[in-house]
Amino acid sequence: MEGVSSHRTLSYSRWSYDSVLDDEGSNLRQQKLDRQRALLEQKQKKKRQEPLMVQANADGRPRSRRAQHSEEQAPLVESYLSSSGSTSYQGVSSSMSFDEEEDEDENSSSSSQLNSNTRPSSATSKKSIREAASAPSPAAPEPSVEVEVQDLEEFALRPAPQGITIKGRITRDKKGMDRGMYPTYFLHLDREDGKKVFLLAGRKRKKSKTSNYLISVDPTDLSRGGDSYIGKLRSNLMGTKFTVYNNGVNPQKASSTLEGGTLRQELAAVCYETNVLGFKGPRKMSVIVPGMNMVHERVCIRPRNEHETLLARWQNKNTETIIELQNKTPVWNDDTQSYVLNFHGRVTQASVKNFQIIHGNDPDYIVMQFGRVAEDVFTMDYNYPLCALQAFAIALSSFDSKLACE
Question: Low complexity bias located where (predicted)?
Answer without folding.
Answer: 79-97, 108-122, 131-147
